[in-house]
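User: Can you predict the 3D structure for this chain?
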Amino acid sequence: MATVATAGAHAPDVPQRAFLATRTKQLSFLSTSLKMGFNLLQLRSTAPATARKNLIIRAARIESQGVSLGFRAPHFELPEPLTGKMWKLEDFESYPALLKDIVKLSNFYMKKGLAVVAISSNSVATHPQDGPEFMAEEAKLFNYPFPYLYDESQDVARDFGAACTPEFFLFKKDGRRPFQLVYHGQFDDSRPSNNLPVTGRDIRLAIECVLSGQPVSSNQKPSVGCSIKWHPQTVQ
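Assistant: Here is the predicted structure, written as structure tokens:
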């Protein structure tokens, strides 16, 4: 999952603009999996038996890669399986902020003007239980307050330089300038094996800085999670 956020420079009567995009396989169980170490696939019961039978899961843990701060948010145009609507980066231009990931965090900061979008890029060739049909069911079941988009080609994942799930990208926007990356780090220090509580401290601090027009620290710890499930390469 990748997250991108943008915010405008602090000035009187000028709203702060922020865009946060998160790339994830399953948003609803993220906090549970981080705290207790559950395999997200074990929490899903909606995939038909035919899709689960003999399915071998190979999910290597990986850190988010080094995308330079100041990186411009790439254009995207992706479908939302729940509604069928096509969403573009431009659809979020008018929002003071955008968050794409955790439901609770999203609900809180959307009230403060954060716009939120979530994107799934996992291959349905290897992981059919992550396809758009099940994405739509999840979005409806857990009442996601943000669009949950499907990156079938995986081009958007590559454009963002995404590597793992979850992954967060926070961009800020100054006036008419393009969204620029100010945070590409972890949710917090919690990991499946360290028993630390899930607080979202790191991403919360970054969002608060963006919305208040303050600089975001460049001292950022990378996200750690399962690698994106890329499409199998075609042998020529």
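The two ends are 30 Å apart (CA to CA). The CA atoms of residues 188 and 201 lie 5 Å apart.
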